[in-house]
Amino acid sequence: MENIRTFKKTVSLLFAEMWKQKKSYFLLLFANFCFSGIYTYALFLLPKEVLTMLMQKEIDAQMLIVLFVTIFISSLMGAVMRYLYTPIGYTIRYQLMFELMKKNMYMPLHKFEDPEHLDKQELVILPLQSIEGVQGFYLQLAHISGALGVIAVSIGATFQIHPIIPIITIAWFVLYVKLKLDAGNFADHQVKTNQSIWRESFYLNDISRDASFAKELRVYRMQDYIHEKREQIIKRIQATLTPMERKESHILHLDNVYQFIRDGVMYGVLIVAYFAKTISLPLFSSYTSLVMQVNSAFEVIFEGFRTLSFRYPSIIRMFEYLHEEDDQKQAQPLPEASTWEIVFEHVDFHYPGNTHMVFKDLNFTLRQGKKLAIIGLNGVGKTTMMKLLMGLYPPTSGTIYFNGVDIQNIDKESYFTLFAPVFQELNIFPYSLKENLTFQNDCSDEELVEITKQVGIYEDIKTYGWDKQLTRFVDSEGLLLSGGQSQKLLMARALAYHRDILILDEPTSALDPIAEYEFYHKINNEYNDKTILFISHRLASTSFCDEILLVDAQNISEFGTHEELMQRKGMYYDLFQVQAKYYKEEELA
């Protein structure tokens, strides 16, 4: 019964989605049902009337014309209804894809670090990946509505002979539904249980055609290794598919047995009725023709049902995922203030699914207008600290305040307007130069020229124009930027947004130490009204910052100005002395 309830819920959700998209589609389905019923009844009468005329040796031309015209018009109108209805499958499928994409883009970042959530994302997209999901349901629905018209007429017609015929027909249908729902639920359980295997399989497919992996795959001759991994996954997938195939085979055998019993009973009743002279030979001919139509109609319905039965649990999950309550629904807008500060108070943090603490009892304050250098060795959590600051991750415990308000209670969209980050990842989109710099931000060409000059990339791109496409993912003649140029472009993107807090997360790793120092110094001088966070394991930015924060061993190891930390002769002093000689060597070179 649980499977039946779940299936009914799936169908009601899909109908609700169709109602939301276009209510007139229901009229098309009803019209198709009616025309199909009329067509079936006319086709039912035709052999009876023809055979009667032959036996009586008298042709009723008017009756034949009426029947043929009825068959032609009802068939034509049914085809027109199906033609008008067909686009709904594509429309709703791609609309739901868009809604899923939007949902994922607004999903809290920390969920993308959670393997359970990644498995969930793969499961909810399943009904939209092939014609056997949402689209298949809507495409089959037009055919099913016509088939139901056939069955409605046949039940009414055969009931007059003996009620056992429609009863057996309905019983067989109910039994088939139960078997297919059980099989679909079993298949869904297999897919859900082994989703991590499928995710690994998709990942291997992706890296085989991902340009960012292409060099390593070839230089290190990793193709055979990846192929071996793929073979192992295929074996594991086959092990999960075998029980599903056996279940389907079992249902197929049962279905054949039930069809044999159903057809035997139906034809048996007709033969008995004929010899008992309950029905005439012409009527017997019409009923046998009707039985064949019913069989064809059930094949259409079962094909549509087969399409949906495998996907119905994942369709439920998809709609539940889309309708999940937004954690930010009750959040307040960013408090308005002429000055602000962001305070970390006893913050602990570890990543989802990982018990290792990145930070323990982290406390510090970021004040408006300050230039703060966040330094430390690789892997100590500098970038993680910035993600906490921007609200991309919630603290495991403790609180981060913006002017005394917990940032978890502030609407994320308004809170994000404080920040213009430059991350370590070089994410260049396959769109124009201008789109990569501004997206929907209103920034004039004159401003872009000034900003790109400030970051030192204008001379590299000025000959191409702002409409030049970047990367060759879409445009075969797209502009390919070097690592250093990409970093400068991302820096220009951040500056184009004119936000209060500029976060530079090692955006100059592709530059040499002297160039990095000069770049930081220039940004510091030209944007002295902004709050700027310089994040690096190199110390090019530290001497001119108001405050320096050294991260080590899950907390802040040292905090103060450059002069104060040098006088203490602690870890910062040692790092600075080691790196200072490289700057001197670069100058000598």
TrEMBL record:
Taxonomic superkingdom: Bacteria
Annotated InterPro entries: AAA+_ATPase (IPR003593), ABC1_TM_dom (IPR011527), ABC1_TM_sf (IPR036640), ABC_transporter-like_ATP-bd (IPR003439), ABC_transporter-like_CS (IPR017871), P-loop_NTPase (IPR027417), Type_1_exporter (IPR039421)
CDD domains in the record: ABCC_MRP_Like (cd03228)
Annotated Gene3D superfamilies: ABC transporter type 1, transmembrane domain (1.20.1560.10), P-loop containing nucleotide triphosphate hydrolases (3.40.50.300)
UniProt membrane topology term: Multi-pass membrane protein
Residues that span the membrane, as ranges: 25-44, 64-85, 161-179
Localization in the cell: Cell membrane
Domain ABC transmembrane type-1: 26-177
Signal peptide: none
Keywords on record: ATP-binding, Membrane, Nucleotide-binding, Transmembrane, Transmembrane helix
Segments forming domain ABC transporter: 342-578
SMART domains xrefs: AAA
GO cellular component, one term: plasma membrane
Single GO molecular function: ATP binding
Family annotation (PANTHER family): ATP-BINDING CASSETTE SUB-FAMILY B, ATP-BINDING CASSETTE SUB-FAMILY B MEMBER 6
Protein name as annotated: ABC-type multidrug transport system fused ATPase/permease subunit
Species classification: Bacteria, Bacillati, Bacillota, Erysipelotrichia, Erysipelotrichales
